[in-house]
Amino acid sequence: MSLHINFTLSQSDLDYFSGVMQQARDNAKNISPQKIISNAEQLLEKVNQCETADFIRDHMSQLDTLIGMIVDEDWGMIEEDRARVLDALSYFSEPQDLIPDDTPRLGFLDDAIMIDIVCKALAHEIQAYREFLIFRATEANRRGDDAAPAQKSEWLEQRRQQLHARMRRRRDYKTSGAKTKSPFSLF
Questions:
Q1: Residue pLDDT, tens place only, 52-110
Q2: Do 92 and 111 contact (CB within 8 A), yes or no?
Q3: Which of 123, 98, 102 is nearest to 111 (CA)?
Q4: Taking CA 91 as the corner, what is the angle to CA 94 and CA 175, rounded to the nearest 5 degrees?
Q5: For a surface tag, which of 8, 13, 86, 94 has the fewest beta carbons within 10 Å of its beta carbon?
Q6: Gap between the Cα atoms of 33 and 41, Å rounded
Q7: CA 137, CA 31: separation in Å to the nearest integer?
Q8: Distance between CA 174 and CA 181 in Å, rounded?
C-alpha cells in the first residue's frame, strides 16, 4: 500500500525558499562551477546510498538532469542559461541546509522540496534538454554507426539550436507578463 500526499507552499513559504536559494547563490559565488557540479553529484550519490524515503529519492533523481544539462557537451548551453542552472545547483552545494542530511529517512526532505521548486523554475530548460536526449538517441539508432561524425555534429547542432531558441522564447514569454506568470521566481 502507498499513500499519495500533496501539499501547497504559501507565498510566505515560497519567499522563504527564495531567500534560502539566494543565500546559497551568494555563498557559491566563490565556488567554481566544477565544484558546484561535483557537490551536486556527491549529494545525489549520498541520497542513493543511504536509507531514505522513496519519494525523496525519486525527487532527487532530477538532479541528474540538471547536472547533465551542464556537462553534456552536445547540449552546449550558452553562458546565461548555464549560469541559471548553476545557480539552481548552488543550493545543493550547501553543507548546512534546512534539515541535516543525516536525519534518518527525512534528512533530504528540504533538498527534495528545493529540487521541485528548481525544476518548476527551469521547466522549459528541462523539457528542451529531455527532448534533445530523445532526439539524439533516436537519430543515433536510426542512422546507426554509418553516420559520419561531421554529419552527426550537424544534425545535433541544428536540433540543439531549435530547442534552445524555443526554450528561451517560452521562458521569455513566461517572464514578460503573460497571464500565466508565476508570482514566484528563483532567478
A1: 888 888 999 999 999 999 999 999 999 999 999 999 999 988 777 788 888 887 888 99
A2: yes
A3: 98
A4: 160
A5: 8
A6: 12
A7: 33
A8: 5
